[in-house]
Amino acid sequence: MKPGDEITCPKCGRNSFLKKVAILDGWTKKGEILACASCSAKIADVPAHGQTKQQAAHQASALAAFLNENETPIKTRIEAGESEKRFCRDCTHFIKHPFGDKCGLHDRNVNPMDDCGDFKRKE
Ligand SMILES: [Zn+2]
After folding, report:
1. Confidence class of residue 81 from pLDDT cuts 50, 70 and 90?
2. How many other β-carbons are positioned within 10 Å of the β-carbon of residue 18?
3. Does the pLDDT of residue 49 top 80, yes or no?
4. CA 15–ligand 1 middle distance (angstroms)
5. Distance CA 19, CA 15 (A)
6. Ligand 1 centroid – CA 8 distance (Å)
């Protein structure tokens, strides 16, 4: 059954046709039914798979996009950390100091786990 199909309405008995009616819950569309065009009696539910599948696919791709967006930087960070390990504590300019570790090159306080563009591996 689809909108526009001719029916003999079981409710009002008239020769009528099906119309699609949205079921609203406040402003939220909850679904659609096929109803008699004459008396608006519900004749059938509108099969929702098509729409639901589309929505699910949309959500899945949105989720994938979301995951990709968030996955890439994390992955890059881990790879950079494991393959390069440009931490200040391994740098030749790193000066361990009881009142705060310093960078001898930039003459500023640094954290051992900082990374730096001027990193030079300690011999
Ligand atoms: Zn009817």
Report:
1. very low
2. 21
3. no
4. 8
5. 13
6. 8
32: CA distance to ligand 1 center in Å?
17
Helix (H) or strand (E) holding 36: strand 28-36
Domain boundaries, the chain: 1-50, 77-123
Q: What is the mean pLDDT of residues 45-72?
A: 65
Q: How far away, in angstroms, is 34 Cα from ligand 1 center?
A: 11
Q: Identify the H or E element spanning 82.
A: helix 49-83
Res. 28 pLDDT band, cuts 50 70 90: confident
For CA atoms 49, 53, 55, 59, give the dihedral sign. Answer: positive
**Dihedral (CA of 49, 50, 51, 52) sign:** positive
